[in-house]
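Appendix C: a fully annotated inverse folding record. The material below is reproduced so that readers can follow the format used throughout the book. The structure is listed first as tokens, followed by the designed sequence.
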């Protein structure tokens, strides 16, 4: 086999920034553009069945079987316009805003571009006059934000196009019966012009605080992340054939919960410092919407409106058949025998059928938590991290 390839990637970025302080007002403005393009091409040949393995003999024309030539290429590009504004008054009232317009060649003509704004605000309570005599609080800030991000992950550069291929062993045929084969084509990829940007809409409301001369840090945050137009391979029936399924916008998902963390920084003498930190995050996941029929299956999981992502779906095992008497008094089940799994008759019709499949587990955790320990003595340091996940089912 011999192969030759080359690839190129270029990025062109331009930014313009403006910063100005007017008394207690601080203003920062940024505007810019960025263009990215990737391109590659390869060509090669392979052959086997050589009479000799002498390197001087190993050229493609001397092979007697599996003689194949091939080539390939890809190209994709991204173009973005963006702007950001940050404003603060007396370092107490903080505002920020960003706006992006992104265009990707991975999507069809009608859905190449997306507009993604975000906004944030914060109130540094510790900077107010009524906090001047509260010496045990070093910093106290209330903050909130809302933003929309675009994603093109998992989308190939050819996703919008239906592609065909050709090969001697797969699509050539002696269609006239004359002993002379004719070139034919077969479908390798099903295109979708309607696929567009996945939108991640994130909302946060939090409180950050530092106490006791920066010995204790505490952060409490409520978050919500909504994924609109989730990018996922389109489920296709087996009758579609062997062509690869396109990536499509298949539904809307929502995650929300609380995130709480605290850390204590201490020291013993001048040479020994230590840190103790802990965090806990609650997590609730739910599929908000999936186009008809309202669900799609992936292996043992069914993603369905009103249920969490990746929920286990199938026959619910309630135990084992103990003996023949147990088999005879249970719902009719194919190949039932002592020692095999017994499934739950969900609809109560006395027979185990595909209609008895049900949701029987959630792989998403109710909460995750962690503990971080660190210490340093002169030029030596030590750290440990513990992590846990609670409430998720395992199949």
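Designed amino acids, in order:
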């Amino acid at each position: 086999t011999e192969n030759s390839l080359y690839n190129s990637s270029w990025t062109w970025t331009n930014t313009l920034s403006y910063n100005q302080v007017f008394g207690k007002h601080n203003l920062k403005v940024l505007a810019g553009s960025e263009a990215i393009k990737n391109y590659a091409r390869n060509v090669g040949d392979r052959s086997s069945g050589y009479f000799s393995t002498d390197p001087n003999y190993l050229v493609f024309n001397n092979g007697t079987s599996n003689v194949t030539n091939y080539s390939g290429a890809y190209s994709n590009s991204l173009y973005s316009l963006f702007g950001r504004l940050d404003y603060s008054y007396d370092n107490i009232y903080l505002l920020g805003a960003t706006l992006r317009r992104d265009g990707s060649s991975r999507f069809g003509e009608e859905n190449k571009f997306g507009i993604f704004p975000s906004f944030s605000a914060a109130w540094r309570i510790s900077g107010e006059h009524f906090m001047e005599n509260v010496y045990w609080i070093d910093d106290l800030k209330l903050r909130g934000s809302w933003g929309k991000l675009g994603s093109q992950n998992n989308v190939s550069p050819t996703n919008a196009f239906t592609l065909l291929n050709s090969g001697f062993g797969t699509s050539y045929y002696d269609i006239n019966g004359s002993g002379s084969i004719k070139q034919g084509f077969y479908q390798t990829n099903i295109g979708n012009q309607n696929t567009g940007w996945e939108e991640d809409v994130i909302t946060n409301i939090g409180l950050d605080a530092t106490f006791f001369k920066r010995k204790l840090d505490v952060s409490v945050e409520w978050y919500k992340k909504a994924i609109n137009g989730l990018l996922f391979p389109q489920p296709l029936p087996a009758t579609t054939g062997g062509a690869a399924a396109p990536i499509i916008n298949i539904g809307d998902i929502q995650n929300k919960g609380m995130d709480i963390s605290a850390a204590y920084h201490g020291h013993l003498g001048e040479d020994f410092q230590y840190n103790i930190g802990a965090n806990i995050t609650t997590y609730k996941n739910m599929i908000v919407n999936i186009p008809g029929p309202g669900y799609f299956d992936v292996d043992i999981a069914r993603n369905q409106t009103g249920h969490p992502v990746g929920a286990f779906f199938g026959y619910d095992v309630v135990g084992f058949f103990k003996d023949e008497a147990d088999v005879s008094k249970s719902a009719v089940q194919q190949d039932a025998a002592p020692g095999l799994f017994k499934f739950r008759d969900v609809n109560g019709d006395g027979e185990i059928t595909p209609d008895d499949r049900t949701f029987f587990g959630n792989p998403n955790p109710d909460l995750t938590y962690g503990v971080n320990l660190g210490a340093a003595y002169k030029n030596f340091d030590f750290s440990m991290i513990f992590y846990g996940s609670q409430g998720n089912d395992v199949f």
